[in-house]
Amino acid sequence: MKSIQTMNTIIKIIFFSFLTLFGSCSHHSETEKHQSKRNNVLNVRDRLKEIEMEDVLIGSIVRMCIIDDYLIIADHKSFDKLIHLFDKNDYSCLISIGERGQGPDDITLMGHIEPDETNRVFYVNDHGKNVIFGYALDSVLTNPLYKREVKMKMNTEQFPDKYCYLNDTMSIGITIIPTSYSTFNQSVARWNMETEEIIPMVYTNPKVHNKRIQIAASLKDGAYVECYTNYDLMTICTLDGKLKYNIYGPNWSEENGNTQHFGKVTFCDKKIIAAYSGGNRLTDEYYPTKLLVFNMNGDYLITLDFGHMITDYCYDTEKNRIILNLNAEIQFAYLDLDGIII
What we know:
By secondary structure, this protein is mainly β. It has helices at 2-31, 137-142, and strands spanning 32-34, 41-43, 49-50, 62-67, 70-75, 81-87, 93-99, 110-116, 121-126, 131-136, 149-153, 162-167, 170-178, 184-191, 198-200, 213-218, 223-228, 233-238, 243-248, 259-267, 271-280, 290-295, 300-305, 309-316, 321-327, 332-336. The chain has a five-stranded mixed sheet with strand order 1-19-18-17-16.
C-alpha cells in the first residue's frame, strides 16, 4: 500500500513538473525568439542610384527625414545653413535655412529633427537655447521672411533627446537615466509635448546592462521597436509599453563587448528595417553596411547588403525607396524596394 502511495506521489510530481515546464516553454516561445541564422543576403550595391546634390555642399554628419514631397537634410557640420529642403521627386534643392550662431534667429546647437506630417511642420531641437523650434513647411517654402516659432522649452533635467512624434500628446522618445556619477542607461518613454509629462515604459529586458538603443514608433501599427547598439537584440512593444517580442540574433550574448550591432531603425510598409554592423565600434567597422528586414512579428526576412558604410537613411513611403547618406565615393543614393521587399 505504501509503495502504491509513493508511486502516486512520484507520478503527481512528474505530472506537475511537466505542466510547469510546458507552460514556461509555451510562454517563452510567445515572446522570446532566437534567430541562429540571417543568411538570406541580397547584394544591392549595383542597384543604388546616385543622387546629385548640385552645388549644395553637405558635410559628412547629416540626419535625413521625409515630409510630404520633401527630403529634409540636417547638416550638423555646416558653418552657415544647417537645414536643406529638397524636392524628393528630382532631388533639386529648394531652400536652405537655419543659420548657425548665437543670434535670436540662429540655431546654436542643433540636435534632433522630427517631421509632423499631419500638421506639415518639422521640429528642430536647439540644445544651445534649450528649445524646440517648429518650422511650418508651407511658410518655409514660400515666405523668405518667415520666422520659426518656439514649439516648447526643453526641461534640461529630463528630456528625450531623440523622439518619434506621433501627435502633440504622444511621442515615443529616448531618455537618459543616470546609474552613477559617470554612467547611465537609456530608456524608452512616452512624452506629452503639451504637458511635458514623461512616463517611462515599464518593460525593459532584464538580460541587458548598459543599455544603448535606437528606436522607431508607428501610430498606424500600434507599436514601437528598440534596437540595441551593444547587443544583438531587438525588442518590439505596444505603444503603451507591453512586450510583444524579444528577438535575439546570431551574435546575441549577455556580455557587452566592443561589437557594434544595430543602428537606425524604421517602420517600412508593415516591415521593420534596421541598420546592422557587427563590426568593432572602435574602428571604421562601426558603420553599418547592411539593412536587416523583419516582419512586424520580428521574423527575419532578408538582408540588404549595400557594400558601403551607411551614416544615415530614411524611407520614402510614397516611392517605396530607401534614401541613404554614405561614407563612400557616393555621398547620397537611393534604392527602389519594388521587387525586393514584398
